[in-house]
Amino acid sequence: MNIAIVGAGYVGLPTGLALAYLGNDIVFIDVDSEKIELLKKGKIPFYEPYLNEMLNLTKDNVKFTTDYKSGLKNISIVFICVGTPADENWKPNLTNIKAVAEMIGEYRTKKLEYVVNKSTVPIGFGKMLHNLINKDHTSKHIKGKNYITVVSNPEFLREGSALYDTFYPDRIVVGSDEINGIEAVSQLYSPIVNQNFTPPSFLQRPNGLSAVPIVTTDLCSAELIKYAANAFLAMKISFINEIANLCEKVGGDINEVAKGIGLDSRIGRKFLNAGIGWGGSCFGKDTSALIEMAKEYGLKLHMIEAARIVNYNQRTIIIEKLKTQIGNLANKSIGILGLSFKPNTDDLRDAPAIDIINKLLSEGAYVKVHDPVSLQKFLSMTNKSNIYGNTDVYKVIEGCDAVFVLTEWDIYKELDWQMVKRLMRGNVVIDGRNALNRELLIKSGFIYIGVGR
Ligand code: UDX
Fold this sequence. Notes:
alpha/beta, six-stranded parallel β-sheet, binds uridine-5'-diphosphate-xylopyranose
């Protein structure tokens, strides 16, 4: 199948490269010429495990271009994978995706039959997309261009394991109001649904996985599934954080509580890790978008609003905990280990570390930062004085009154704590992800502060 992927980002690249691996010919179209040039040279423009290896494996059946006209030649399916960041009113900004629809409408050929949307869009947008792309049609098959069927195929991949999630998803959702759209996209995914492809050596199939469920539904339901899934996961994290805050008051250990409730198969242990809460490009944006969309229908989404309040409070509570240990923060040196919103990505969007650093700076602290992949990106974004960064984690720790671990990268779990103790001026370690060995730290003479423990 000849497929175009519009948007070579965190969603488009894993999707397109996986489809290439499964035997399709892929053209990536992206307006960012710098990105396209890098990709043509075989370089991935951001950090995501195994994309380099996958590009290397599939290079003979992938192409990259900034030009829609040549890109859409011979293409029968287009996937839209462009960003829909929140605008100033917390609604998804649709400028990019509308421009993409116009370009597809303009340059589509007779061969093009399906446009599959993977971008997260307001519920009902699929219908608008259909009208934008087909706008010069009063009837099917005219002017040498095809009538286009629109399909929604929301992505559920997690950054840091995007390719793994593409090959081995929990489910695939395909929504369209036209049955041929559902059939064509289901067919495309059949190697994943039936798990009958040979796995790449670096991404082995999980034990026991023999098939992936596929949910076929209407356009609107598919769009809502995406928002509802993210809102539920966000609520689950905020729920455990709220219980963690209670644990601290009553003297419980949130890890024990999470285990105890997570073993109930109706609840499940995943996404019950307490800490400084969620960040990233999806949960914050999608929960606020859902709240705003519901408002347009006169509905208030109480639970999702509460989840947001709990989440963003975690970023303040952790600083209050530090202050109970070392008092006023003015002129104190505070180390921040971990900037990305989670491990295995360089993504800093809505990263808790950024809010926490800004709060520390506003209270007069001197902030020293480290991250194994996003340090340079962070430093190039900030113009603040009073921030020092170094790629050597021990140089960052040296002289600190307190150290926060804000992203659970493995290197922080494996630190030489005896050395850390010698290098630090103080002895407070705040584990914002409950990722460290508490007993070891206490034994090594640190004041250990976790979340809900
Ligand atoms: C999320 C969804 O998981 C994915 O399905 C969707 O397509 C995009 O949004 P992502 O943002 O990449 O993926 O990261 P995810 O692994 O879900 O983590 C989101 C945030 O929640 C991270 O900051 C993570 O640290 C935090 N988190 C996650 C917790 O605080 N506790 C948990 O138990 C799980």
